[in-house]
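Q: Structure tokens for this one, please.
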Amino acid sequence: MKSQKNLSTLLICPPLGAPRPRGRRGFSLVELMAVVAIIGIIFIIGGSEISRAWKRQKLQSASGDIKVLFQRAYSEGQRRGMRTFIQVGPLVTAGAVRYMPLYLIGDADQNGAVGAFCRNPPVGAPGCPDLLIDEYDIVVRGLTGVDQEFSLSDQDVTQVKSTLWSDNSTNWNNPRVLMCDFQGRAIADIANGRQIGAPATLALTHVDVVNGSSQPPTQYKITINPVWSVRVEKQIATSRNPDLSFNWVTQNG
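A: Here is the predicted structure, written as tokens:
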């Protein structure tokens, strides 16, 4: 009986000379610094990609907003019983604020031309004969110092790249106008009521594309067809020319 008791004690209690398990040791300073460095690298790489993705998303959203504004020209004209105009520019400077407006205007005085316009004027109101239906502004400089994000040219942020509008000169101080008449025709030669013979286009890109810091360079080509309809094409640049213009390839319709 005594021998059995001694045997059970040996099984439960380890011998006095047996090695004991060591406690957990902490991280060394070198290990902690290595982990912090790896986390920092991941954050920098991930943060840059997030920033680029955010800019791409904002550019795509802006192109969609402009498309909707231009599309409304026909439906607003039918609803209000008046011809409508879309006008790009000119640049507006108001103190510290500068912006590039895109207007949707109603021909409230029915004279077939863009006159002075404001929101909700009485028909034929003196000094404001036409109706400002809606507006989209590309901010160049805001009250809080916000810098320009979008550009209407792939070569110069102070220019507008367009075709078949009433004025296609490059400077953003020159307004460009298209009229949508009662038949839904897109007209650039407003004085003669001549319908455009091919789609009119307008470019929208990011200022980072113009200065060469955005990869891959992306722009959205906004197209207004001779019979009023609007579409947007996403384009990727395959190369850049000596004059700083890009060679664009349509990615999707």
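A few notes: The first helix runs from residue 2 to 12. The helical segments are 2-12, 29-80, 207-210.
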